[in-house]
Design goal:
By secondary structure, this protein is α/β, with parallel strands linked by helices. It is built from 10 helices and 22 strands. A hairpin with a 2-residue loop joins strand 9 (138-144) and strand 10. Helix 2 packs antiparallel against helix 6.
Length: 426
C-alpha cells in the first residue's frame, strides 16, 4: 500500500513537504522552510530516491540544500535558475546552510519541461503541468504503477499580466492534494482589473501628498507582476511618473523572467520578442543612490521580503514614522511575521533593536498569485474528478473549510491532515 507522510504545510502556510512511500521507493514533493522562523521539516534524506520541487518559493524549496540528497532533484527549467538565487539569499541572510550545500544541490538537479513524462523511480513516472502561480511553477502529476496523483502546488486559475492560468487539461486523477491558501468561503477577491485600480489609487493618493510608497514583495512572481502594472499605468499616464526603486534578489529574478519569455503569457512574450521591456524603467538601489530614497521627493520602493520578515525591506520601515508615507501589503502575511503585525494594526514594530512607531498608513491590496475561493471551486470543476482529496497549504480554518466545501459540493471524501499524519495515498 502506498502511503503519504505530511511533513509540513498542514494547517499552515509554510514548510510544504510531502513524502510518498510506495514500499519500492520514496520521494519528496517539495521541501520548504517556514517563512516566519526558518524552521525545517524533519526528514531522513538518506531514504529519499527523488525530490520534485513544484516552484521556487521559500516555503516549497527553501530547505532542499539543507539536506544531503544524493538522488535527483526535479523541477522546471526556470525554477532551477530561480531556486539558485533564492538559496543564495537564504544562505546569506539566515545562515541556514553554507554555500557548498547549494552547489551540491545544484549538481543533483535535473530540469524538465511541462508535459514531459519522466520516470523518476522504478515505479513512479512524473509529469509537470503549468500551475500559473509564478514563472516555472508546476502542478506535479505522478503515475504510481497505474494509480494517479495530482499535487497542485500553489495554483492561480486566472491569467495575469505575466503568466497564463493554471493548466486544467489533466489526465485522470485518483487522489488530489490541493492548496487552500484562500480556502474559506469569505476568501474572495475582486477582479484583477479592480485590484490594479485599487493599487494605483492607493499609490496615487500618497504620491499626490508628496509621500513614499513601500511595497514588500516576494522576489519571484508578485514583484514582476506589480512592476509590470506600474509601468503600464505610467506609460498610459494614469499614474504619475516617479522613481521606482527596487532592491534585493528581485533585480536578478526579473532578469530571469525576461530570459525565459517562452514560459510567460503570449502578450508579455510578444513584447519581449519585439524588444519592448514590459517592466519599464526601474532604479536599482546601490551605495551611490540609496540616500535619494530618503529625500523629500515622492517615490515607490519595491523590495523583499513579501512578509516583511527579513531582507532589504526592513531598512525602509523607518519611513513609516511619517504619516505621509504608506506601506502596501500585497499578499498573504503568515502568523508571527512583521507583515501580519502591520496588517493587524500594530502601533509600533521592532524590525531591529529599536522600536519604530507606525504613523504611516498600512494598506492591504490582495495582489496574490494564489487562487481565491471561487477560483479553487472553478479549478475543481475543470479537472477530472478525483476519488479522494487531501487539503493542505492553508491555515487551519481555510484548510478545514475547503475540505468541507469539497465534500459538500462534489461529494468527494476530503480531509485536511495535520503535520506528521501518515495516511493511505489511494
Amino acid at each position: 500500500m502506498t502511503i503519504v507522510r505530511f511533513h509540513g504545510g498542514c494547517h499552515q502556510i509554510g514548510m510544504s513537504c510531502v513524502e510518498i512511500d510506495t514500499k519500492k521507493s520514496k520521494i519528496l514533493v517539495d521541501c520548504g522552510m517556514n517563512p516566519s522562523d526558518n524552521s525545517l521539516p524533519k526528514i531522513n534524506s538518506n531514504d529519499i530516491d527523488a525530490v520534485v520541487v513544484s516552484h521556487s518559493h521559500l516555503d516549497h524549496c527553501g530547505a532542499v540544500p539543507y539536506f544531503n540528497f544524493k538522488n535527483p532533484i526535479y523541477s522546471t527549467v526556470p525554477s532551477v535558475d530561480l531556486m539558485y538565487i533564492l538559496w543564495k539569499d537564504i544562505s546569506k541572510l539566515s545562515k541556514t546552510y553554507p554555500e557548498e550545500n547549494i552547489q551540491r544541490a545544484m549538481n543533483n538537479i535535473s530540469a524538465v519541461n511541462y508535459g514531459e513524462p519522466k520516470k523518476i523511480t522504478s515505479d513512479i513516472t512524473m509529469k509537470l503541468y503549468d500551475a500559473g502561480h509564478i514563472l516555472g511553477s508546476s502542478s506535479v502529476y505522478l503515475d504510481i504503477e497505474g494509480k494517479k496523483l495530482l499535487y497542485t502546488g500553489d495554483i492561480n486559475e486566472i491569467e495575469t499580466r505575466t503568466l497564463k492560468s493554471a493548466d486544467t487539461d489533466i489526465d485522470e486523477i485518483d487522489t488530489l492534494i490541493i492548496e487552500s491558501t484562500y480556502g474559506a468561503p469569505t476568501d474572495t477577491k475582486p477582479s484583477r482589473k479592480a485590484l490594479e485600480k485599487q493599487l494605483i489609487d492607493e499609490i496615487s493618493a500618497t504620491i499626490e501628498k508628496g509621500g513614499k510608497v513601500i511595497i514588500p514583495v516576494f522576489a519571484v512572481g508578485r514583484s514582476q507582476e506589480i512592476i509590470a502594472v506600474l509601468h503600464n499605468y505610467m506609460r498610459s499616464k494614469l499614474l504619475k511618473r516617479v522613481p521606482i526603486y527596487v532592491e534585493g534578489s528581485l533585480v536578478h529574478t526579473t532578469g530571469i523572467y525576461m530570459s525565459h519569455s517562452e514560459w510567460l503569457n503570449p502578450k508579455i512574450r510578444n513584447n519581449l520578442e519585439n524588444r519592448i521591456n514590459p517592466f519599464g524603467d526601474i532604479t536599482i538601489v546601490n551605495k551611490k543612490n540609496s540616500n535619494e530614497i530618503y529625500n523629500k521627493e515622492p517615490c515607490i520602493i519595491i523590495s523583499t521580503s513579501g512578509m516583511v520578515q527579513g531582507g532589504p525591506i526592513l531598512q525602509y520601515l523607518k519611513l513609516l514614522k511619517s504619516p505621509k508615507n504608506k506601506i502596501i501589503l500585497t499578499g498573504f502575511q503568515a502568523e508571527e511575521t512583521l507583515g501580519r503585525q502591520l496588517e493587524d494594526g500594530a502601533e509600533e514594530i521592532t524590525p531591529f533593536r529599536n522600536k519604530i512607531p507606525v504613523r504611516g498608513e498600512v494598506v492591504k491590496v490582495e495582489f496574490s498569485a494564489h487562487s481565491d475561493y471561487n477560483s479553487l471551486i472553478r479549478y475543481m470543476k475543470k479537472i477530472p474528478k478525483p476519488k479522494k482529496v487531501f487539503v493542505m497549504h492553508g491555515e487551519r480554518y481555510q484548510s478545514l473549510s475547503f475540505a468541507m466545501t469539497i465534500w459538500k459540493n462534489f461529494k468527494i471524501p476530503a480531509i485536511a491532515p495535520t503535520a506528521g499524519s501518515v495516511l493511505p495515498l489511494f
